[in-house]
Amino acid sequence: MNLWGGRFTKPTNQLVYDFNASIKFDKTFAGQDIKGSIGHVKMLTKQEILTQEEGQLIEKTLKEILNEVENETLEIDESFEDIHSFVESTLIDRIGDTGKKLHTGRSRNDQVALDMRLYTKDQIEMLNTLLIDLLKTIHEIMKEHVDTIMPGFTHLQKAQPITLAHHMGAYFEMFKRDQSRLHDIYERMDYCPLGSGALAGTTYPLDREYSADILGFKGPCLNSIDGVSDRDYLIELLSAMSTMMMHMSRLSEEMIIWNTNEYQFIDLDDTFSTGSSIMPQKKNPDICELIRGKTGRVYGALMGFLTTMKGLPLAYNKDMQEDKEMYFDALNTTKGCLQLLSDMLKSTTFNKDKMKKSATGGFTNATDAADYLVNKGVPFRDAHGIIGQLVLYAISQNKDLDELSLEEFKNISDVFEDDVYQAIDVNTCVNKRNTIGACGQEMMKKVIALNEEYLKQF
Ligand code: ARG
């Protein structure tokens, strides 16, 4: 069932019809399509392009249809070409010829552009809510673990002691940037394409500012060709979601490592773990692995759609219908992962003792030992060399630095005194680091207070 056909003498080939049809996926934004039509009809009525009676009848019937779609008493008939045809036909079935006036001064090109924008605005809000929840979860972990010492890594080798609050604070910053990217995208895309027509605007005296206003936009987009062919904001959002997924994937990867028998830094809750069909002892971090794995499909949607758009001449081309399926999938994937990651973190146990033990071994205090010498007047480069020798010696004795006797220290350099033990104690290593952004307890508390302020605005 088509909205067109007048200039055709033969029916569409069935395969062509099926290939071309989009209702199976554009029914996703049925609500936005109907709301967009209600806005359009209000404007047509205000401009006296439709009479009051016509406008009121169409609006009332569209609201009924919206209601029925929302409470699922009206089934969307997938034999229609797209959601726009289904809604318009349903309207005409109910009110006859008056319904045929709805599409006055409008094309499916500006209609679909409007639907996608309305839909995307709703989706950005949902993503935002989920991101804020994740940020709040991380914030709670940070507050609880200002004193939880763990090793920080570079090259996945133990580097220097930090705290769990500090480590999670890095993710707080990443997700905070993700949140601000959402905000920026929303600001840039918040312009209404309705009234662009097929590409050239229309001859009717449409009030585009009014339509934009009642549909909740900042204003109308200023070029009708761009109005129907701009999909930049989808690419921006796919890119922002890819970055979110990348951040979630990095944290998931760390949780997988931390959950291993070798590390035992965390225990994933039973409710967020899965078992093996053959190995009875297994408790697997499948959710972390799936978040890491699903990152690929969101990147895929971004690359796919960038490629779709790259050669398109202005204005509308049917290629653009390909903006939907992978985009919807990317949105569902990202929203699902945000929710699961947040809930999983809430239920995770952090094993403070194991973390601290790990931070204490493996020469994580070697930099602080060098700094100790610097404080006693040794130039840093020389201090670095001395501690290098000390580490080599300690490895040969199968000891950590703080297990060496003062005599052993002095054999390498007589600058060492008894106060070295205090200086290289893991607690000292952490808490002496109090410059902005560092892991020391005092600084962490300041950052947590700033984060608390930031979260208050939501
Ligand atoms: N299903 C189409 C899309 O998603 C709607 C616009 C159709 N416009 C057209 N001129 N065929 O892009």
In short:
With 458 residues, the protein is mainly alpha-helical. The chain has helices at residues 14-20, 23-26, 30-46, 52-70, 83-95, 108-144, 164-189, 208-214, 224-229, 232-258, 286-309, 325-346, 352-360, 366-375, 380-396, 406-412, 420-423, 426-431, 441-456; strands at residues 149-154, 157-163, 191-192, 219-220, 266-267, 349-350.
Describe the structure.
It catalyses: 2-(N(omega)-L-arginino)succinate = fumarate + L-arginine. Pathway: Amino-acid biosynthesis; L-arginine biosynthesis; L-arginine from L-ornithine and carbamoyl phosphate: step 3/3. One of its GO terms (molecular function) is argininosuccinate lyase activity. One of its GO terms (cellular component) is cytosol. Residues 6-300 form the Fumarate lyase N-terminal domain. This protein has 458 residues and is mainly α. The chain has three domains: 14-104, Fumarase C, Chain B, domain 1 (Orthogonal Bundle); 109-357, Fumarase C, Chain A, domain 2 (Up-down Bundle), CATH 1.20.200; 362-456, Ribonucleotide Reductase Protein R1, domain 1 (Orthogonal Bundle), CATH 1.10.40.30. Helices cover 61% and strands 5% of the residues. The chain contains 19 helices and six strands. The protein has helices at residues 14-20, 23-26, 30-46, 52-70, 83-95, 108-144, 164-189, 208-214, 224-229, 232-258, 286-309, 325-346, 352-360, 366-375, 380-396, 406-412, 420-423, 426-431, 441-456; strands at 149-154, 157-163, 191-192, 219-220, 266-267, 349-350. The strands form three sheets. A two-stranded antiparallel sheet has the order 1-2. A two-stranded parallel ribbon has the order 3-4. Strand 3, helix 8 (208-214) and strand 4 form a beta-alpha-beta unit. Helix 3 packs across helix 8 (208-214), helix 4 (52-70) crosses helix 5 and helix 10 (232-258) runs parallel beside helix 12 (325-346). 40% of the residues are buried. The protein binds arginine (ARG). The site of arginine (ARG) has 10 residues, from helix 6. Arginine binds at residues 22, 26, 82, 108-109, 112, 316, 318, 320-321.
